[in-house]
Structures are given as C-alpha cells and as structure tokens.
Amino acid sequence: MSSVQPWQRRVGCSPSGSSFFRLLNQTRQETKAQQLEATIEQRLRSSTITLGGNPAIDLVGLSIDWQQNPPLIRARVRVTDPTLPTATQVAAAREFINKSQAPLRFRLVMQRTAVDLIGPETASNPADLEVLPPPALPPLPRAPEAEDLNEKPWSNQNTPFFAVVFVTVGTSLNQRSAQRRLDAKHSVTQSQ
Asked: Measuring CA to CA, how many Å separate 66 from each of 52, 106, 111, 117?
C-alpha cells in the first residue's frame, strides 16, 4: 500500500513535498505572528496614554503566547511609580488591542518592574546661560561672476561640492542662484 494520499497525487506532491508545504505554511504563520506582535507593540506605544504618554511607565518588551486561547500578551514594563499601571489601565489597553485587532481577541498581562531613580538634587541653571550653539556650517560658494556665465557649471572641478551644498541648503539657494544668473545675463544683453 502506498503512503501517498489521493490529494497528493492530484497536486503532484510526494510525502517530502508535503513536508515542504507544511514547513512553508509554518514559516508564514510565524512571520504573521511576529508582524502582529510588532504592530500591537507599536500601537501600544504610539496610541495609548498608559504605555505611550506616561513618563512613569516604560514598555520594555512584549511577547504573545499563541498556544493559549485567547492568545496571552505579556507586556514587560519598567515603572517609577509602583502603583502603575492600574488594573483599570491594563483593562483599557486590552480593550484597545481587541478593538484594533477584531475579530481576534487577546488577554493582556503586564509584568511591572519598579525602578527607583536615584540622584542628588541639583539647583536649576541661571536663565542667562545658553546651550552651546551647533557648529557652524561651511561657507557657501560665491555667486558666479558675469564673465563666468559662459562656462558650463558642470565642467567645474568643484561640482560635487556645489551639488552637496545645493542639496543640503535647499530650493531657496537654487532659486537665488538662478535669479542671479538671469540678472547677470540680462545686464550683459543690455550692455551690448
């Protein structure tokens, strides 16, 4: 008796081929689970006050136990206030997840680790002190002179430098440079 099932003959699969498809399906499911886990973590950070907007709570990591039904989300949080998050906040976060992932439902458990911030009290800095300014940008190249207008700008050996400066500085420099060229060209044609 053959170990090949009738459905395998129809699709041209051997037992080794079916294990390949099983492995491929398992990989797809794991990838989908990882993407869903990352999406849930990102939404908890960006869209909830409890885990995204409260400086006393820091979401350290998240894992989902897919073997349970409904799947169990374990969120690891670091807190400076040991009373946070409250059971109400955890329930609200769970409801947020379940609404955004409907019809799939989840359970949510937060594992909190209390962190004490230790440091001496320090007096405020005087108002007249300024933070050091950022380093100065390199000087911009000079505008081309009227006699240089006949020269092709891309033939200049410094073209890469100019290209970087134009890209970095932005459109307004390109517009000013073009206007200067037009003004210079206009003054040359008027003087002829």
From this structure: 25, 10, 18, 35
Residues 31-56: tens digit of each pLDDT: 998 999 999 988 888 888 777 788 88
CA atoms of 47 and 144, how far apart (whole Å): 52
**Cβ-proximal residues to 180 (8 Å cutoff; 6+ apart), any chain:** 143, 144
C-alpha 56/C-alpha 113 separation (Å) is 11
Radius of gyration of the chain (CA): 32
Residue 169 has, within 13 A of its CA and on its CB side, a CA count of 17
8 A C-beta contact, residue 57 and residue 84: yes
Q: Which residues contact 141 (CB under 8 A, 6 or more apart)?
A: 158, 161, 162, 165
Please give the model's pTM, rounded to 2 decimal places: 0.51
